From TrEMBL:
Key words of the record: Methyltransferase, Transferase
Residues of the Methyltransferase type domain: 55-141
Keyword Methyltransferase belongs to the record: yes
Classification via PANTHER family: METHYLTRANSFERASE, METHYLTRANSFERASE TYPE 11 DOMAIN-CONTAINING PROTEIN
Record-level Gene Ontology MF annotations: methyltransferase activity
Keyword Aminoacyl-tRNA synthetase attached: no
Name recorded for this polypeptide: Class I SAM-dependent methyltransferase
GO BP term, example: methylation
Database matches in InterPro entries: 23S_rRNA_MeTrnsfrase_RlmA, Methyltransf_11, SAM-dependent_MTases_sf
Pfam families in the record: Methyltransf_11
UniProt superkingdom: Bacteria
Gene3D superfamilies (UniProt xref): Vaccinia Virus protein VP39
Length: 253
């Protein structure tokens, strides 16, 4: 089969696959990403087991939260992307969570001091004043965040040279937490090797992780996709680097 035919078939395959929820199993064998060393799922399970009332923000399809072995007495999850809401409700039945569809902007629809734990894995934005508001005194916020320069090599393959933004740098998050009256008690960073083995993996990833290239469509970026496909065929898998950091903060008593 020619490279041209390979490209069209791979792109068509990736476009046909749904991207709802936050399950990346379709990429198995097609792409891989190193895991952060701190083990967010283990930390989440520990904090949830010790909480009485907890909120998970930007839960996606609820896949990570559904894995906790001991849910708190009261557990709520929010999601702003409507196609994810029914997926999250199915996945989170096991842990007894209530899933609330919310707007993608503040405020959170909860009373002051409603939760002793707030968590979020890969939030779109971190609304520090709202997090501080809904936390009880002594309450805790735990989050794994996407850092500045996330898969920047892939972004530049689509857009050309672009500067790395400052809005997702850890020090900016720390400043936001402290300005809201929280005390940061843990901050860790990691750079993770991310490998794409074919152009189908790239297309599916860009369709799913929409903030990577915000105006991405196959039609709009077909020339760049074809160039990247030809590079993978000639040179082997395309390597980028994911940026992650862990932040944990406490509302003082």
């Amino acid at each position: 089969m020619s490279t041209h035919d390979d490209f069209d078939d791979l792109v068509a395959e990736a476009v046909a696959v749904p991207v709802q929820g936050w399950d990346f199993a379709w990429l198995t064998g097609r792409a891989s990403e190193e895991r952060p060393p701190w083990g967010y799922a283990t930390l989440l399970a520990d904090r949830m087991a010790r909480a009485d009332s907890a909120l998970d923000i930007d839960t996606g399809g609820g896949e990570v939260l559904a894995g906790i072995p001991r849910p708190p007495r009261s557990l709520v999850a929010t999601e702003a992307w409507l196609p994810n809401v029914p997926v999250a409700r199915r996945n989170l039945r096991r842990v007894g969570a209530t899933v609330v569809a919310v707007a993608d902007r503040p405020p959170l629809p909860f009373r002051d001091a409603a939760f002793d734990l707030v968590t979020s894995r890969h939030p779109v934005d971190t609304w520090w004043p709202e997090i501080a508001r809904v936390l009880r005194p002594g309450g805790r916020y735990l989050s794994q965040q996407i850092g500045a320069g996330q898969v920047h090599e892939l972004v530049e393959a689509m857009l050309g040279p672009v500067p790395v933004g400052a809005e997702r740098r850890p020090e900016r998050l720390v400043a936001g937490a402290e300005a809201a009256g929280l005390t940061v008690v843990d901050l860790r960073e990691a750079t993770l090797r991310t490998v794409f083995h074919d152009i189908a993996a790239v297309v599916w990833f860009l369709r799913k992780v929409v903030w990577t290239v915000p105006d991405f469509t196959v039609e709009r970026y077909r020339p760049q996709l074809r160039r990247l496909h030809e590079r993978i065929v000639a040179e082997g898998p395309f390597v980028a680097h994911a940026r992650r950091f862990l932040i944990e903060a406490v509302r003082p008593d």
